[in-house]
Amino acid sequence: MSYPGLELYKKLYLARRCEEYIVKYYPQNDMKTPMHMSMGQEAVAVGVCHAVGSTGLVLATYRSHAAFLAHTQNVPLFFSELYGRVNGLANGKSGSMHLADPDHGHWGSSGIVASTIPIALGLAFAQKRKNTGATTVVFFGDGAIDEGSFWESINVAALMKLPVLFVCEDNGYAVHTPSKKRHGYDSIVDIVGQFRCATFSDDSNDVESICNMTQQALSIIQAGGGPVFLHIKCYRYLEHVGINDDMKDAYRPVEIQEAWLKKDCLVLQRLRLINEQGVEEIVIQQLEEQVETSIHHSIVAAKQYSSPDPSQLFHGVFYEEN
Q1: What is the DSSP letter of 59?
Q2: Looking at the domain assignment, is residue 197 inside a domain?
Q3: Is the pLDDT of residue 176 over 90?
Q4: For residue 311, how far is the Cα from the chain centroid?
Q5: pTM higher than 0.85
Q6: Which of 1, 95, 122, 316 lies 20 to 30 Å from 26 when distance is taken between CA atoms?
C-alpha cells in the first residue's frame, strides 16, 4: 500500500539523522568544514523540494544540509564532501556551505548572505527563454531580506514575470539579532505583496502543509503568473554555526524554543502517519532502519577515500578548457 506522507517523513528523517551523525563525529576533527546545521528547520526544505521534484532548479543558503538532502537524497556524496574527500561533490574542496550537484538540478549554496538570489534570476530567465517549464527555487534566511540584492531581485522577477520561487526560511534571527531589532516594518509579506508577486505564509512547521502551499505556488508560476514569495517561519535548534546548543547565551527565550519543540516536524509527521494515514509502526521503523544503514555505509565509505592533493588547490577556481 502507498502512503502519501511516508516519503516526506523519510526525507525529514534523513536530514535529521545525517545532522545527528555530524554532531556525533564532528569532534573527531575529520570534518574540517564549518557546520551551519538545519536541525529544526527541515520541514521547509523537505516540503518545498518534495513539491518541486527532480525537475526543479534549487539554490540554497550556507545552512544547506536539509535542502541538499531533500532535493538529491545523495547521502554518499554528501558525507564525502563534508569529510573533504576526492570523491565528494567538489572533490572535497567545497565543504558544507557550498554543496552543489548541478547535473541533478541542485545548483549550489553560498556562504555569502543573499548571494544566490540574483543567480536564481539568471537561472529562471534561462528557463523562460528556453521554454523548459522548469521552476527555479532559491532559499534564503530572513537576514537576506536586509540586503539590497533581495529587493532588486524581487523587482526584476516581478517586472519580467520570471518562473522563480523565493523561499524565506525565517528562523527569527540574523545570526543573533532578532527581526524586531533590524526591520522598520511589521510584515515582509505585506511589502513583497505590493510587487507583482504572489505571497504565501506558513508557521505550522508541518511538512505536508508546506508541501501543499508550495504546490499552489508552483501552479501560479507554471501558469505564467510570475514569481511567488513564500515566507515560512521556522526555528533552528542549534547555534548559528556549529554543533552545539546555544541556549546558555540567552539571546533566545527558552519558552519560544519549548513551543517549537512541541511541534517538531518529525514528530508531527510521524504521528500523522500512524493516527491519520494508518501506517503501521513496523513500516516506519523499517524505513528508519534503511535510512540509518544508508548513512552508516556512506560515512564508512567516505573515510576510505583520500583528501585532494595540494596541487589541486587552484584547480576549479577559474574556467579551464578540457
Answers
A1: E
A2: yes
A3: yes
A4: 32
A5: yes
A6: 316
